[in-house]
Design a protein that fits this description.
The protein is an alpha+beta fold. It is built from two helices and four strands, in the order H-E-E-H-E-E. The longest helix has 14 residues. InterPro entries: SCVP.
Length: 79
């Protein structure tokens, strides 16, 4: 079980893995997990409300998260 699965189970969050595209990338020499969510599946605020506590939960594995919503500047979410 990965950290995201652990977090969603611990918070009793329904995480629709079939609707969220995931990919791994190197950004600025650092490992990144990128999650793409279509605009009609969740609002930016809903995603931010999920990503903030998930980033804190994964503090041993994740230094920060970067949230980019359509039409907005990216926001860095730190532990």
């Amino acid at each position: 079980m990965d950290t995201l699965d652990e977090f969603t189970k611990s918070e009793d969050i329904n995480y629709p893995t079939t609707e969220i595209r995931q990919k791994i990338a190197e950004i600025g020499g650092k490992f990144a997990a990128i999650f793409e969510i279509a605009e009609d599946e969740a609002t930016c605020e809903e995603v931010a409300n999920f990503v903030r506590p998930a980033t804190k939960f994964a503090k041993n594995e994740v230094d920060f998260s970067l949230l980019k919503c359509p039409g907005e500047k990216p926001v860095v979410l730190t532990n």
